[in-house]
Amino acid sequence: MSDSPFIFSRALPFCPGCSHHLVVRNTVKALERLNLPPLTVVLVTDIGCHGIIDPFFCTHTVHGLHGRAPALAAGIAAGLREEKVIVYMGDGGASIGLQHLIECARLNFPITVIVFNNMLYGMTGGQPSSLTPCGFRTPLRPEGATEANYDICRLLYSAGAPYVSRVNGAGDYSEALVEAFTQHGFSLVEVIETCPSYGLKYNPGQNTESIAQKAGLEFGVWRNPERKVMRLELTYNRASLFSELKMSGKVEREIQTQEPKVREKVASHRAGFGVSRPLGTFSFLIAGSAGEGVQQAGEALARTGVSAGLYATKKGTYPVTVGTGYSVAELILSNKPILYTGIDIPDVAVIVSQDGLTYAENVVSRMSEGVLVIDDSLTHQTSCANVLRQPFRKIAGPKNAVLLALMFYLRLTSVLPVEAFVEEVKSMGRNWNLLLEQMGRLSSNHNYK
Ligand code: SF4
Q1: pLDDT surpasses 90 at 30
Q2: Does domain 246-440 correspond to CATH entry 2.60.40.10?
Q3: Is any atom of ligand 1 closer than 6 Å to the C-beta of 194?
Q4: In which band, very low, low, confident or very high, does the pLDDT at 244 lie, cut at 50, 70 and 90?
Q5: Candidates 3.40.1380.10, 1.20.1600.10, 3.30.450.20, 3.40.50.970; CATH matching 20-223
Q6: Strand arrangement, sheet containing 220-223
Q7: Which of 43, 90, 202, 309 could be 137's S-S partner, Cβ–Cβ 3.0 to 4.6 Å?
């Protein structure tokens, strides 16, 4: 257990003696000094040993692809106003994502990047990175690196970063982190570290100071004049969402007056279908094939929920090869803020292809309540009480099957305002009249199991 509001445990997951322990402790100390509420902090981690810290932080955490954490954080920070967005990345991630770092500094996104520079890729066995200094020995280059390293502080300072600093990772540098966290624009702190498992093993007797000295890296702070911070113009408040959707005044009025009713409908729908879990949240799993509009349909449904005054989260899952295999969207709609994405067992599962069923079969087989909306070409095992089986693919084709299935479900249950979903479908450039015609070809005998 921990006595800090920012971290769950005092015991951290790194190797004994690893400098990463100190980066985390200094971060926590700096955040405590700033007295920020934990949920006003977003920690974005990259791939690497440092990235296994995510579950230990009580802040928001997001885990990015290798080298892409700054780009992810830039997008998050640009849409926020009050929150502090911090990036953790190693020297390997900084090498792979160098262009992202340079652009974040050049465009002045309001994020603080902490580079854990232990001069090698620790997680994958100690390979040298572009920040490994000449002569530094690693398992892959036991004779020592022969090329010169990048000076990440100098590079980002040249790119226009308002604040960069390099600190000795062996001590208490929480004050330097406080200073970086309180910058208005982009800031970066490079922490010179040691990795006992690979770095010190191959470079015995060295420490952070001697490594920095041999590499010609000075500790210090470098500043450019402050300038405009990159943020998005926020158009996503409730009022502008309606105008963005080009919704008519009539529809807007209808939806506003429907809000309490919508919640009642969600509640009665759940009760009607025997959903016994606590009211207040309603979850969908939408599963189909890549390239068939599953993510877009999920987004349309989430935006429909937002239009109805509900909170919404969406999580997309698909293989690395985004053009083949399954595509799954998990949505939560609730009348209370939702602090997570993803679901265990959904209230509604919409399955429109074999790829989607193969992915979701395990979840579907555990659905003892709720509703399963499924294409009639698919065979499945479920103990789900309510199964709506229709030829969505046959009637609408692979590209429209998921929209048709969602429309079918909404029209049948009215758990969300159908008008708002229609507007979303139209804004996606889909042929609404065609969908309407396809709806008419579905059976009105709904085949409840
Ligand atoms: S492998 Fe190195 S960098 Fe990774 S946790 Fe262990 S000591 Fe730290």
Answers
A1: yes
A2: no
A3: no
A4: very low
A5: 3.40.50.970
A6: 60-63, 41-45, 84-90, 111-117, 187-192, 163-168, 220-223
A7: 202
